[in-house]
């Protein structure tokens, strides 16, 4: 198949999933065309089956905000026509699904049929999409997609509750590529971070309010009182400064490292003992899955799709949003005993294998074929 993929080219979950999916499809013999305004963050190799089409937005004095949607629609028309694509897969409802619909209508007027698959990732539904100014467009775009997927059952249910959606939504969970994410022997790195054999705790996110990064610092402070440990904060965003200031106020700054954005996150996860995700909203929890694939158990909230990924008492523990004391106590339960820690590590890895890319990729391929067949 010739597949067009539209996504945000960022470190966020939707961009990562779209990019990794495209790379896997290309490796499986499909011709994949990425169409976006920057090269996706994880599009780190090229093959005979992988293409990137930049959406170049010009600046005009007339516009306070460049008309990206219009330019993207024109680019989609161009790529579909000249690359003779079989299907368009757009990630994120806003604005990609509505733009794809516009491109489809333009192509239809030219005698070209292009089926559209829309994947819902989370924030497009749980936060942005609920804005009354976006809601009619989101509902329309979903209903007029030829196929719709969601990354968790919870997200599917939220979509049906929040919007007037008549379209069937197929749940295809996020996935992990074990050729990249697996535990690697990085003893020298671990010794550099924890020279006294301290436990290493990690958190990765975009440091937005929804990630509750201050909770991570507070949880760690309680752990550190009982167990010698280090905290690695990976990523960047608007809440980073507050988390840094809190670590100083609590007197634990010497035990906390803010590492910023990191490409080789698997290197950091390979030396970690525990992953903390206290988010108030997660459609799936891709960062937690990456940790689990490296054999790192997870302390998370029970928000959104996290219970579908993190099995309470097996791959880690679940707690209510904001339950800092409970999360700290559960973290200590895992970390204080080597045998218990190793059991949780093994269970985290076992759970991650349920989401192996090799298992999930065929679901997308079969869905593409089904959608293409139904639109002929």
TrEMBL record:
Glycosyl transferase family domain mapped to chain residues: 187-350
InterPro entries assigned to the protein according to its UniProt record, in alphabetical order: Glyco_trans_1, Glyco_trans_4-like_N, Glycosyltransferase_grp1, Thiol_BshA
Transmembrane segments: none
Residues of the Glycosyltransferase subfamily 4-like N-terminal domain: 11-179
GO BP annotations, alphabetical order: bacillithiol biosynthetic process
GO molecular function per UniProt: glycosyltransferase activity
PANTHER family: SULFOQUINOVOSYL TRANSFERASE SQD2
Full protein name: N-acetyl-alpha-D-glucosaminyl L-malate synthase BshA
Species in which this protein is naturally found: Candidatus Sphingobacterium stercoripullorum
């Amino acid at each position: 198949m010739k597949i067009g993929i539209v996504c945000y080219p960022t470190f966020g979950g939707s961009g990562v999933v779209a990019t990794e999916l495209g790379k896997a499809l290309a490796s499986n013999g499909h011709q994949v065309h990425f169409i976006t305004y920057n090269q996706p963050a994880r599009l780190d190799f090229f093959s005979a089956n992988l293409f990137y089409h930049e959406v170049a937005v010009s600046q005009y004095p007339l516009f306070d905000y460049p008309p990206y949607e219009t330019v993207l629609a024109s680019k989609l028309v161009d790529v579909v026509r000249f690359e003779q694509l079989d299907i368009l897969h757009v990630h994120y409802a806003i604005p990609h699904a509505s733009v794809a619909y516009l491109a489809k209508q333009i192509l239809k007027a030219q005698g070209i049929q292009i089926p559209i698959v829309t994947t819902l990732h989370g924030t497009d539904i749980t936060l942005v999409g609920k804005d009354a100014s976006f809601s009619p467009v989101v509902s329309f775009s979903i209903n007029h997609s030829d196929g719709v997927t969601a990354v968790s059952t919870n997200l599917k249910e939220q979509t049906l509750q929040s919007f007037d959606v008549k379209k069937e939504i197929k749940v295809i969970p996020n996935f992990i590529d074990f050729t990249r994410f697996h535990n690697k022997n990085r003893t020298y790195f671990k010794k550099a971070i924890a020279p006294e054999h301290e436990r290493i705790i990690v958190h990765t996110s975009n440091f937005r309010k929804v990630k509750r990064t201050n909770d991570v610092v507070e949880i760690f402070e309680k752990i550190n009182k009982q167990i010698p440990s280090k905290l690695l904060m990976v990523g960047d965003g608007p809440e980073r400064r507050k988390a840094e200031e809190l670590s100083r106020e609590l007197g634990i700054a010497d035990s906390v490292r803010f590492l910023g954005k990191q490409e080789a996150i698997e290197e950091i996860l390979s030396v970690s003992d525990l992953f903390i995700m206290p988010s108030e909203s997660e459609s799936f929890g891709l960062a937690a899955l990456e940790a689990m694939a490296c054999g790192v158990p997870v302390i998370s909230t029970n928000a959104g799709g996290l219970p579908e990924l993190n099995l309470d008492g097996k791959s880690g523990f679940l707690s209510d949003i904001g339950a800092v004391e409970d999360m700290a106590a559960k973290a200590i339960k895992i970390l204080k005993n080597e045998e218990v820690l190793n059991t949780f590590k093994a269970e985290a890895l076992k759970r991650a294998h349920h989401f192996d890319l090799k298992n999930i990729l065929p679901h997308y391929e079969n869905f593409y074929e089904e959608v293409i067949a139904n639109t002929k």
